[in-house]
TrEMBL record:
<dbReference type="InterPro" id="IPR015854">
    <property type="entry name" value="ABC_transpr_LolD-like"/>
</dbReference>
<dbReference type="GO" id="GO:0022857">
    <property type="term" value="F:transmembrane transporter activity"/>
</dbReference>
<dbReference type="InterPro" id="IPR003439">
    <property type="entry name" value="ABC_transporter-like_ATP-bd"/>
</dbReference>
<dbReference type="InterPro" id="IPR003593">
    <property type="entry name" value="AAA+_ATPase"/>
</dbReference>
<keyword id="KW-0547">Nucleotide-binding</keyword>
<dbReference type="GO" id="GO:0005886">
    <property type="term" value="C:plasma membrane"/>
</dbReference>
<dbReference type="GO" id="GO:0016887">
    <property type="term" value="F:ATP hydrolysis activity"/>
</dbReference>
<dbReference type="Pfam" id="PF00005">
    <property type="entry name" value="ABC_tran"/>
</dbReference>
<dbReference type="InterPro" id="IPR027417">
    <property type="entry name" value="P-loop_NTPase"/>
</dbReference>
<dbReference type="GO" id="GO:0005524">
    <property type="term" value="F:ATP binding"/>
</dbReference>
<keyword id="KW-0067">ATP-binding</keyword>
<protein>
    <submittedName>
        <fullName>ATP-binding cassette domain-containing protein</fullName>
    </submittedName>
</protein>
<feature type="domain" description="ABC transporter">
    <location>
        <begin position="2"/>
        <end position="208"/>
    </location>
</feature>
Length: 208
């Protein structure tokens, strides 16, 4: 279980969210909605260990994660292009996050719905949807327990969105807990098992 307890999230002295209580269970997809600038990305960054909370704690199965919990909590961003090194092929990017034992490329690409023929291309040689699926493959290669998805379909057309959502659903069926942030409320309602709203300082159940 990925949990936030009495979490305060913000920048400098400015708190965006306070008293956040949150639980994401393995295999569960939790939607997270709220106005632009309310702190959703900032919360995800704290949950992933990229930034520190102003107060409170993040727990995995009841204990604080190690200092670099990225292996257990992977973050997926709106722009896969900005999160991929343009100098590396997709295969090289994925290998950086893979366990030393190596990668079962066929199995990984099947899970991420990524054509193996694309692995030796560079980011500029694939579409946004293909690159987002490569980013998912890179995240899954690290065998994370939790996926934090930040507007990951915002730049995609409906077909690419459906493909990406299917991979996220498969990851949840395989046991990953997912926190899915989007401004697309119908999409969140369709994808998530339950939806939380950051419109108030503490997260509360959203009625979509
Ligand atoms: N590193 C930073 N330093 C200072 N302020 C920041 C930093 N990152 C974000 N902010 C500010 O924190 C607020 C919340 O930003 P955040 O990206 O978390 O919101 P959001 O809910 O994800 O918004 P959106 O839905 O538009 O993506 C914004 O006012 C933003 O300008």
């Amino acid at each position: 279980m990925l949990s936030a307890r009495s979490l305060a999230v913000g920048h400098g002295r400015t708190a965006l969210l306070t008293d956040v209580e949150l639980d994401v269970a393995p295999g569960e997809i939790v939607g997270l909605v709220g106005p632009s600038g309310s702190g959703k990305t900032s919360l995800l960054r704290v949950l992933s260990g990229l930034t520190r909370p102003l107060a409170g704690e993040v727990l995995i199965d009841g204990t604080p994660p190690p200092k670099r919990p990225q292996g257990r909590v992977a973050m997926l961003f709106q722009s896969a292009r900005r999160s991929c090194d343009p100098r590396l092929t997709l295969r090289q990017s994925i290998e950086l996050c893979a366990p030393k034992a190596g990668v079962d490329w066929d199995a990984l690409c099947a899970r991420a719905d990524l054509q193996t023929a694309l692995l030796d291309r560079h980011p500029h040689q694939v579409s946004d949807g293909q690159l987002q699926r490569a980013a998912i493959a890179r995240a899954l290669a690290g065998q994370p327990g939790y996926l934090l998805c930040d507007e990951m379909t915002a730049a995609l057309d409906p077909a690419a969105t459906a493909a990406v959502v299917a991979t996220v659903r498969r990851a949840a069926v395989d046991g990953a807990g997912v926190l899915f942030v989007s401004h697309d409320l119908p999409l969140v309602a369709a994808v998530a098992d339950r939806v939380l709203d950051v419109a108030e300082s503490s997260l509360r159940k959203a009625h979509l």
